[in-house]
Amino acid sequence: MLKDQWNQFMKLLKLAFQFSLIFAAWVLVVPGIEARQNNEDPDTIKIGLLIPYNKSLAARQGAEMAILKANEAGGYEGHPFQLVIRSMEGPWGTGSKQAVDLIFKDRVWAIMGSHDGRNAHLVEQVITKTHIVFLSTWASDLTLSQAFVPWYFSCVPNDLQQAKALTEEIYNKRKISKVGTLSDNGYDSRLALKSFIIVTKTAGKADPVQFFYDDSAGNFHIMLDQIDKADVSCIVLFGKPAASMKIINELRKRKMNLNVFASLSVLGEEKRSDPEMKIYDSIVLVSSGYWLRPQGIAFRDEYYKKYGNIPGEIAAYAYDGMNVILGAIRKAGLDRNKMQQSMAKIHYNGVTGSIQFDDKGNRVGDAMLIEVKNGISIGGD
Fold first, then answer.
1. Quick one: DSSP state of residue 290?
2. Do 39 and 171 fall within a single domain?
3. Into how many domains does the chain fold?
4. Bridging pattern class, strands 369-373 and 259-262
5. What is the pLDDT of residues 69-122, one digit of tens each?
6. What's the whole-model pTM score?
7. Are residues 90 and 191 in the same domain?
8. 21: pLDDT strictly greater than 70
9. I need a surface site. Which of 14, 32, 157, 339 has the fewest CB within 10 A?
10. CA separation (Å) from 118 to 12, 32, 92, 269, 334?
11. Which domain holds residue 7?
């Protein structure tokens, strides 16, 4: 185990060194980029979007909708906004190069990311050196804000906010004491679970029974047998959508009478359909609950008309995130420092609710919980 940890540490150290060389090379090749960006009069105002895979569409389409609406309204002082998309698909570390390319090659004014926490950390390293605004619209990793990088912002509830909402609902409102957690071994899931454990301990609650599964195995029978023997009253899911749906279906097939709760990550599908939402019937989810509001319903209908499918959480957060960035540019103009200050003070009422940030870049406010009945959300906090 120690040997494996050491090897992993050395691999990360090597990648960090490679990143520093890439970044240093760009700085030498393109001197004075900040001064040029703050004084030039561009034909188009470019905003970067980082997505996890080339085929990822939800964030792309949500951001596109926001850009199109802004350009229909005249852009910024007659200059149209342009979305520049780069995929982080490839070996770990690819995200660093893509972020550097967006800044130095494409010369974007801000970067929006719809990807996991590990890749968000890579982008954060880049913006620390370049002072470019970076808005995360999916990673809930709490440690991103603990780096105290003033150019980092997030418009999704972080792991701690989600954990507090789940703990309040499970232990205090529903008075459930026998709790189990079910997580894959991924980076984001582990961190989300860690926050949940910390919050429950701080609240003086009994430690939940922890279960883990291999996301690639696809066979959950042994794990579900273990859950059955543990005699827990509820399960809290931390994982990806496909595996989470399979687990929920297996729980129902076995007629295991368990309350099921889930973090935001289980709603991370690229597309959403009514049958898929019905899978989540009677389950309490951390969610933006955007479809509950008139503004959210209008967004959903417009998105469906344009792209032919119902938008999921990824698209909704991307749409709001891009509107936040565009609003900051309209207010601050083409000046990096003023743009950062504008982001820090922004108050935006979006389809995912009210968005503003604390002094660490976290979205302010409690995470929302919803319960699904017949494929429709019936309420939340």
1. G
2. no
3. 3
4. unpaired
5. 999 999 999 999 999 999 999 987 898 999 999 999 999 999 999 999 999 999
6. 0.88
7. no
8. no
9. 32
10. 11, 29, 9, 19, 29
11. 1-29
Sheet of strand 110-113: strand arrangement: 81-87, 45-51, 110-113, 133-136, 152-154
Distances (CA, A) of 256 to 167, 232, 252, 253, 359: 22, 10, 6, 8, 44
Euclidean distance between CA atoms 138 and 156, whole angstroms: 6
Alpha helices (H) in 254-346, listed in sequence order = 274-279, 294-307, 313-332, 336-345
Interstrand relation of 45-51 and 81-87 (parallel, antiparallel or unpaired): parallel
3 state DSSP class of 54: coil
Q: What is the DSSP string of 33-45?
A: HHHHHHH---SSE
Taking alpha carbons only, the member of 271, 212, 283, 221 closest to residue 242 is 271
163 located within any domain = yes
361 belongs to a structural domain: no
Residue 96, burial from CB neighbour count under 10 angstroms (0-12, 13-18, 19+): buried
Q: Which amino acid is at 240?
A: K
Indicate if 206 and 231 belong to the same structural domain.
yes
Q: How big is the chain by its Cα radius of gyration, in Å?
A: 21
d(CA 266, CA 123): 24
Question: What 3-state DSSP class applies to 63?
Answer: helix
pLDDT tens digit string along 225-280?
999 999 999 999 999 998 998 999 999 999 998 999 999 999 887 666 666 677 88
- What is the distance between the alpha carbons of residues 268 and 287, in angstroms, rounded to a whole number? 10
CA dihedral in degrees (276, 279, 285, 291; nearest 10)? 40
Provide the CB-side half-sphere exposure for 187 (13 A, CA): 13
116 with 247, same domain? no
Which two tokens mark 61?
Answer: 């389409």
